[in-house]
Amino acid sequence: MIFALDLEGVLAPEIWPVLGAHFGVPEFSLTTRDIGDFDELMRKRVTAAARARLTLPDLQRLAHAVEPYLGAREFLGRLRTLGNVVIISDTFHEFSEPLAAKLGHASLFANRFELDTEGRITGFKLRIRGQKERIVSGFKSAGYKVAAMGDSLNDLSLLKSCDFPVLYRPVEALAREFPGETPVLNLDDALLKLEEAKRQVDENGTNGS
Length: 209
Ligand SMILES: [Mg+2]
Known about the structure:
This protein is of the alpha/beta class. It has two domains: 2-12 and 68-203, HAD superfamily/HAD-like (Rossmann fold, 3-Layer(aba) Sandwich); 15-63, no CATH class.
């Protein structure tokens, strides 16, 4: 069985608003709730970074200091005894690899920046955006059952395409998409729900692990 988890808002705080508050760059603090098109949002952030003369290492100093939520590392440790755990996120590897390490070297699937020779961000490669459903269907066609957990609309395709969606403190628009699902409000309850999913898979005798 595979557990596919969102990162920001589930296992750790959002990184961009931390950068926005520290550097006083409002474009960093905008979210997909302000600008629905993630590509456009990222272009605004890259332009703002250039205008503020901030390089990737400047941003990384802050991003790498972000700590997981209390209990997130232990949560992942317990989940790993039930199956394979992957984090599928709209974050960037250059920001979040240390966070993944702090989470017990979790497997991270995320986007990448494009840089010039001076470390300035010139663009980005969105490998994850719009691909979550494909990643899940890849796992499924290899015979795995997939449980997924996310908190926001950017997790919609992940949650819709998996076998066991778990809504973690979801934004209202996401909760509306799953009228039958009771959201979970903490990682203890999330673990109970994912353990139950695993039990169901085991009982049905399908290839879950
Ligand atoms: Mg999130």
